[in-house]
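Second opinion, please. Pick holes in both lines of this record:
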Amino acid sequence: MSRFFTAAGAACIAFLAACGGDSDAPSEPGNGNGGPTPVASVSVTPSAASVVVGRTTQLSATAKDAAGNALTGRTIAWSSSAVAVATVDGNGVVTGVSVGSASIVVTSEGKTAQAEITVTAVPVASVTVAPNAPSIKVGETVAMVATLNDEQGNVLAGRAVAWSTSAPAIATIDGTTGMVTGVAVGTATLTATSEGKTGSTTVTVATAQKPVAQILLSAPQDTLEAYSSQMIGVILRDAEGSRLTGREVRWSVSNTAIAGIDPIEGLMTGVDRGTVTVTATSEGKSASLPIVIVIKYRSITAGTMHACDIASGGIVWCWGLNGNEGRVGSTQLGADVMTSAPFKVPGGLAFAQISSYGRHTCGITLDGKAYCWGYNGWGNLGSGSNASMSSTPVAVVGGLKFRSVTAGSDHSCGVTTDNRAYCWGNNDWRQLGTGTTYSGTPALVSSTISFAKITAGTGFTCGITTTGETYCWGANSIGQLGDGKKISYGNAYNATPSPVVGGQTFQSVSLGNQYACALTQAGQGYCWGSNSTKLGSGNGTSDTSTPAPMIGGHAFQQISAGYGHACGVTSANAIYCWGSNGSGQLGSPLVNGTGTPTLVSGFQGSEVAASGIGTGSGSHSCAIAKDRLTVRCWGRNDTGQLGNGNVTAGPTANATPSIVVGQKPL
C-alpha cells in the first residue's frame, strides 16, 4: 500500500500541485526545486570486518544528504572487488570464499563507499596425535600423524604443524615430518602444534632388539592343489641363532597367476598349475621357497562318445562329441561337432560329483544342488522344461539337496541328504520306480525305503539301502534286476523296487546296458543280467538273473559298468577290464574281448594306478591316476572321446591309454 502511494501517489501530488489541488499525503524533502533531495554521500557499517571461509557477515549502508541527514527509499547497489575472495548479495550479506582481502563497494546515485573485508581460514580448534602412546626400540623409528579439526569436528587440511619432543635425549622428532627416532631407554612427550592448538602423546623407548639375521621357511607340503590353501611356516633367528618373535614379516609370490599369498599372514592359495617361489622378508633379510601348484582330478565319468571329469576347484571339463545335444557343454551344435581336448563346462559352478551315461550328464555342486546338461528329450535333465537340450547346466527343480546323482541312458536319479531316492526322465520300462509316464521333474521312488546310493543304467535302476539291501526296478527282460526269476526275453519290467537275491551285502552297484555289477564289502565282484562276456564270470555267454561271482580273485574298490564292457580298480590300484574289445576299450590287444578281467596295458609298474574310472557306450574307458594328477583314456576315438588331441577312424583300436590334453603333472 505504502509503495503504491509513494510511486503512483507522488505523481498524483505533483498533478494536484500543478492544478492547485489539495492532498493530505506527506511530502518528501525537496531540493528547493520541487524534486527529492539528492544523495550527497554513502556510509558503510562496519567499515572493516573479518569473516571465515564459508561463513557470512552483515554490512549496512546509509545514503545521506549534504547536511548529513539519512535519506530513505534510495536504491543502493553492492559489489565486491574480488569475488574469488568474498561475495556480497543485494542485502549486504558478505560470504567468505577463500583466504584474502576484498573491498565491498556500495553505490547510490553515483556516490560510493567501501568496507574492507578480510577472509580467514577456519581456525584449528583441536589437534589429535597418532599413534597414541607408541613403543619403539632404540634405533627404531615411528611416523607420527597429527589430525587437525575445527570446532565442529571437521578435519582441516593444508595447515602447518610443528613437532617437538620433551626429551630429545630419549627420542628425537623431525619438526616438520613428525618422524620419531628412539635414542635411549625412557619416555618422552611428543607435541604437535598448529595455530596455537596442541596435541600430545608419550613415546616409550625400550632396549634395542637384536636384528633378524636369518629366515627359515617351511611348508606342510611342497605341492599345493589349485583352489586349496596352506600356511607357510617362518622362523626368524638373530646372528647367534636365537629365535626371534614379534617381528614383522611380509610375504610375496613370484607369479600371482600361479598362486596368491596373504602379504601379512602368509596363507598361500593355489591358482593354476605351475611352480611359484614364495618369499618372506623381515628387517631387510629375505628367504624363498619353491612350491609346485598342481591340478587334481576326481569323479571321472564317460557317456556316449564323450567323457567328463572334475578338476581342482570343482571345475568340470568334458571332451568328445558335443552333437546336437551339447554333451560337452559347447553352444556350437551339430551332429559332427566335437572336441578332442577338454572343454570347460560353462555356468561357473563348482561340482563335487558328476555322472554321464548316454547323451547327458548330471552333477551335484559343493552345496548339494543338482544340475544336468545335454539331451533332454525325455525330461532327463530334471529342469521341468520342454526344451530338447541344454548345453549349459540347468538346475534340477524341486529345491532338493542331493548326496549323489546318476545318469542313465535316458533317465536320471539321485539320493537326497535325507536318504530319499528320486528319478526323472523316461519311464517306458518303469525305471523311475513310480507312475506309468515320463517325468521332467524328480519323482519320489519309494516313501518306505531309505536309500544310501542309487545308480541308473539302460532302462533300469538299482539302489542300496541304508541297511545294506540292494533293490532294482525297471526293465527286466534279461534278468538285469537280479531278482532270481526266470528270464523271459520279453517286455518284462518291475514298476517297484525288487530285492536282489543271493544274500550278499553290497557296498556299491553299477549299471550298464542290460546288466549290473556290484561289490561286496570285501571287494568281491558280482554281476547279473545280459552276459556276452560283460559279467566277468568267464567266457561263457549265459545270461543270469542271479548275481554271479566274477573270476580272478581280485579285490575291487570300485567297478564301472559301461555299454558292452566294464572296468574295475583293485585295492592295489590295478585296473582290470572285461567284455567287448572292438576298439581296444579293455586296454588290451585282445581282438574279440574276454569275460575274464584283464589288466589294462600301460599301467603296470607305473605310478598311474586309477582311483576313479568310467566307461561309456562309445566303447572307450578313462581313468584317473592314483595320485589324481593324470587322466588317461583308451578305446574308440572317432569323436575325440579319448581327449588326447587326436581323432582316429571309428574301427581303429586304441588299446594303449593316452593322456588327456593338459591333464597331467608338470
Summary: Confidence is low (pLDDT under 50) at residues 1-28, 604-613. Helices lie at 2-19. DSSP finds one helix and 58 strands in the chain. The chain has five domains: 1-31, 37-120, 126-206, 214-294, 309-565.
